[in-house]
Design a protein that fits this description.
Two copies of one chain form a homodimer.
Chain A (H helix, E strand, L loop, with lengths): L9 H25 L2 H37 L4 H26 L8 H8 L10 H16 L9 H23 L7 H17 L2 H12 L2 E3 L3 H21 L24 H32 L1 H9 L1 H16 L14 H8 L5 H4 L3 H4 L8 H4 L4 H19 L9 H25 L12 H17 L3 H10 L5 H16 L6 H8 L5 H7 L8 H4 L7 E2 L4 H10 L4 E7 L2 E10 L2 H13 L1 H4 L4 H4 L7 E3 L5 H5 L8 E3 L3 E3 L7 H8 L1
Parallel strand pairs in A: 2-3, 5-6
Antiparallel strand pairs in A: 3-4, 6-7
Helix pairs in contact in A: 2-3, 2-5, 2-6, 2-7, 2-9, 3-5, 3-12, 4-22, 5-6, 6-7, 7-8, 7-9, 8-9, 8-20, 10-11, 10-17, 10-19, 10-21, 10-22, 13-18, 17-18, 18-19, 19-20, 19-21, 20-21, 22-23, 25-26
Chain lengths: 662, 662
């Protein structure tokens, strides 16, 4: 029988469907006997995300090469070159903005603050839809293809993309298991966040740690193994794909460095690394202050509010045109190595050879393959170039953060830190050779090590995390510098976290008014000692034990909740007996009972008619926010006296919180 | 005035005391303004533990060298050599046993199960005393000095030692801050556990991760920074001390390897690493089965019970004599490289050069510095030596675990895994060269990489953790093999965790009858769905709202608790009003009131006389163990209906649990 025949009888169709179903069930049994269904989902999640990441890298590389080719073809025509340099990123970022905004307005920005909020238990279904996945993916390719002019990264959006893939896979997994409840959604999203970072860089361990640090305030160890499993799958797939595409001969770090192994640094350099950490911490404070200022500015400036609410693409185009004009290689761009792509910037900064001692060797400079930092020294003095780069990129980066398009902010910060470290390291190497006259036979000071430490310390301080230290090691495969890098990151973090300043993501959460409690607590520590009774919204309907049919009917008519608290007497609301769980048919039945047997039931009480389920965990309205926070996410429904019912996390109404914070 | 003068007047003494106090306060102010007092404690903890670790390594190295010297001096006298070989470890382990048992019997064993239990909220003050610290430290030096004959490590005891130092520092910190409450004890102990591992190996990151994985089922992110800070301090101090003592020229990994960087492994080797992971997982299952069997055997065999209860030192001496006789280099020991110390064993196994291809080169074998594995091939066939080593060490290791002396079990397991990996890798290298005839110009297969992966996978599977993968990288400074090592560890863990088998530490916890819930849940998953009402002990006294003085008096006379639950009516115990907090003087006052004003108060009710404090978190007896577990450790006092009150963790009475588990 030709199964595609339109004349197929309905019974045959049914047989086919049953056969398919049977096959599916059998496959599920065989797979399920090997390991739980969710592990296949975790593996699929890792592989899919890595595939998305690889595909994005490939398309971005092609788009960047097209721009470089066009620019080089126009050599000699200064105006045409300027137009090519500026209009290419302008059109790409305008496209990115309009595309993502028209398909799904939630796809703009990094996505990390939203994912954090979702992971803390708040439902935000729009942020996990498939249209958002599509809009964010295409938009991000355009943003990245705009290159080092716009200077934005892909980590944050990839965490978001991976979470969307995870949510979708979780639905699939639930269907495959034939269950109705979505058992593992929490675990799946935590794992997805880890996979996002891991498959961005092929760095599984730091991926997991970064997501743990950024995403949660508490980490359940039962998610630990799934996280590492999925992250390892993602990282392996990412590496294998780049190997098969011919980029790498074997699995190796993305920015493989070759620092000297026998004496990577002198022990006396350890305090110097701590000083670099302090510098990076101070730098991060300045950067975060500027970032907070501009977030406030675009919220309060009337012109900007108007432009950003109606003409988002125009705003993007204008800002990117400004950025591109500044970085034009024939004007100021030559003093800030603007011809290098983001990847080239990082690998040139991490090179172990000293720039200054090589800058006189003209033959090497002509071969960019041997000497990736030639762009930095082409204008003469690398110190000035680095300083100018740091000064210009600070405001350019802050400005770029306001663009309403899908973009990540981690990688730019990482590179900025590497530039700080490089400047510091180059200066130190110069001083050690030309002022202190170190023994020439011994290993010279390696400025690349300082660049690596600076990158980890600065990005760690900006995001208030320590895992960039490990990420720096995994990205470069350079384990010799583990101790000084960790030290610098710790010192920078200590400085950045002092004085209750919010981190980069906290500032975004607060600016976007997301109900994310840890961010709020950072800005307003007083909140932790406030009783929840004062913060939560008004209480819903309550029934008393002895409620008659009339009261029950009234409550049923007014409320839309599925659970109603039942108390002993309405006089003392703290004596909670349990909850009355209502299903749709339950309500109908109650209504019918009421209408038809009104005389019979009139004297019956609530306790006689319905079973009241006890509440497993009960809070009093006097419990402070801090105490409620210390209850775990995945605990069951909690009743706060009879004030309000909520699932898992504490959802504060924003007005209340603002009231307390004032 | 000479301050030491015995004739000093009391007023002058007072002035001195006041001056000292003022100085102390001023120092505290200056230090406190820079960072919180607890951070100094964390740093001190790291430095102190690293110092202890370094001192131990130094003494152990000296003791081992003395033994080697003595043994080499007796060359030619076979019997004397045998006596030297056996009696030295026998006397050391007998000394270790009798010393630790006589000073503090709690100091025997690894200490990790006890620290886990303490961290989960159970008070075990004997395990954190200073005498225990002393007994464990000295005992551990003796154990380690017995060398590779006894084949025990130092990680576990160091976690315990570090926790004791941490608890002591916490008391000091509390006094310095002038507070009465020990605010940070929980945090301090968590940090101390991380520092223990970090300062053992100078591996800060994996130290923190290992302690997180082994110690807790949930990790609070606020402990994350302190953990890394203290671990970094510890690791840095450890490295600096070994540098200043002349062991290392600069900071480098403890077992620095030099694998080839350009092509560390072929991509096709990745599935082979997964197969090695499977092998290690299977091996770990056998090892854990033997371990559980011997734990049960020494608990049930009547002779052993008698010997172990009275003659612990004799038992140790007998077992170690057996082990030493077997490893005597002139008998079976020559086939298991028994002359190598534990450190030499590991570095020889991790060497990147292939043993078999070098074994014909006699000149290298004569120079043990160039060729650390010469002991392995001295008997001829390295495969047979490795196989014999694996077979013998399995039962020897299981037997050594029963010794009642301070000892760690992680390092032996790590080395055992390295031997499995080495045998696998050597076999593969032989096959690839002599059977498949790989291109001779390309890099040969590196058996050291397999040894490293095997070590991580086997120790990870035995302890049910993933962090040994990171530890292997940090111990060797070898980041090229990150992906395959993580893969092997994941596969081994998947096999070891399947089928609800307890990990090594879980088995110890259960055998020692420690109230550690996660271990219990692993053995008896049914426990998680049991209502706590069934598991907890009988309920204490309860007062009702309208209780008169007589009832109050009765309850006060019978109970020793400081908090008494107050319910609405005794008829329904689930309607909890709050708790009555009693202090000593409160009780006295109530008693007095009762005796003197008996007529006046006779008609008064409890609610009129005392303030009843509401309970912030309330559980019903129907709440399952799983739900209670999901409430966090540091939450406040929780009342389970009126069944029982407990602080923080769930303390189950053992009889109840055994009842459920049957």
């Amino acid at each position: 029988i030709n199964s595609k025949s339109p004349h197929l009888s309905s019974s045959a169709k049914l047989t086919h469907a049953a056969l398919c179903l049977e096959c599916l069930v059998r496959v599920r049994c065989v797979m399920g006997s090997l390991m739980g269904m969710e592990w296949y989902c975790f593996a699929t999640l890792g592989v899919l995300t890595a595939f998305l990441s690889f595909l994005m890298d490939l398309s971005v590389a092609k788009l960047l090469r097209a721009h470089q080719w066009l620019y080089s073809q126009l050599e000699g025509h200064c105006l045409l070159q300027f137009l090519c340099w500026t209009l290419y990123p302008v059109s790409l970022s305008a496209l990115s903005t309009s595309f993502s905004q028209s398909i799904c307005p939630f796809s703009a920005g990094s996505g990390v603050p939203e994912v954090r909020t979702i992971l803390s238990g708040v439902d935000m279904p729009h942020y996990l839809s498939l249209t958002n996945l599509f809009a964010k993916y295409v938009g991000l390719i355009c943003t990245l293809a705009a290159g080092s002019t716009v200077f934005l990264g892909k980590v944050g959006p990839f965490v978001h993309l991976s979470t969307m893939v995870g949510a979708y896979l979780n639905q699939l997994c639930t269907v495959l298991r034939g269950e109705k409840e979505e058992r593992t959604e929490g675990a799946m999203l935590v794992v997805a966040a880890a996979v996002g970072v891991a498959s961005c860089f092929g760095a599984p361990i730091s991926g997991v740690l970064f997501s743990v640090e950024v995403m949660s305030s508490h980490f359940a160890l039962k998610d630990y193994c799934p996280c590492f499993f999925a992250a390892a799958c993602g990282a392996l797939t990412f590496h294998l794909l780049s190997m098969w595409s011919g980029e790498q001969e074997t699995l190796q770090a993305l920015f493989q460095t070759s620092f000297s192994d026998d004496l990577p640094f002198y022990p006396l350099e350890i305090p110097v690394f701590a000083i670099l950490g302090l510098l990076c911490g101070a730098g991060s404070c300045i950067y975060l202050f500027c970032h907070r200022w501009i977030l406030l500015f675009i919220k309060t400036n009337k012109i900007l509010i108007k432009v950003l609410s109606t003409e988002k693409a125009l705003y993007s185009a204008m800002v990117v045109f400004l950025l591109a004009s500044v970085t034009f290689p024939l004007s100021a761009g030559q003093y800030m190595a603007s011809k290098l792509t983001i990847k080239q910037l990082l690998s040139s900064l991490l090179d172990s050879r000293q720039w200054t001692s090589q800058s006189h060797n003209a033959s090497m400079v002509l071969q960019p393959n041997l000497c990736p930092w030639s762009e930095w020294i082409s204008s003469g003095n690398p110190y000035l170039t680095l300083g100018f780069f740091l000064f210009m990129k600070l405001w350019m980066l802050v400005l770029a953060c306001t663009l309403p398009l899908p973009a990540g902010y981690f990688m730019p910060v990482f590179i900025y830190g590497a530039a700080i470290g490089r400047l510091f390291g180059e200066g130190l190497a110069y001083v050690s050779l030309n002022v202190v006259y170190l023994d020439q036979n011994r290993n010279p000071i390696n400025p690349g090590g300082y660049a690596l430490a600076g990158a980890a310390a600065f990005s760690g301080a900006v995001t208030h995390t320590l895992s960039p230290a490990l990420l720096a090691l995994e990205l470069t495969g350079q384990s010799t510098h583990a101790a000084p890098i960790l030290l610098a990151t710790l010192v920078a973090n200590a400085l950045a976290r002092s004085g209750q300043r919010p981190s980069f993501y906290d500032a975004l959460s607060i600016s976007k008014k997301l109900p994310h409690l840890p961010s709020l607590l950072k800005v307003c520590p007083r909140l932790s000692s406030v009783p929840i009774g004062k913060v939560l919204g008004p209480r819903g309907p309550v029934l008393e034990r002895a409620a008659g049919p009339t009261e029950v009917q009234q409550v049923l008519n007014t409320c839309s909740q599925t659970q109603i608290p039942v108390v002993d007497t309405l006089g003392d609301l703290s004596l909670l007996l349990g909850v009355l769980k209502l299903t749709r048919c339950h309500i109908l039945f109650l209504n019918m009972t009421y209408h038809y047997f009104i005389f019979q039931v009139l004297k019956k009480q609530l306790v006689d008619m319905c079973s009241i389920q006890p509440v497993s965990v009960q809070l009093s309205p006097d419990t402070t926010v801090q105490e409620v926070r210390s209850l775990r996410r995945h605990s069951l429904v909690i009743c706060v006296g009879v004030w309000c019912q909520y699932k898992a996390s504490l959802r504060l109404s924003w007005t209340c919180v603002s009231f307390i914070c004032q």
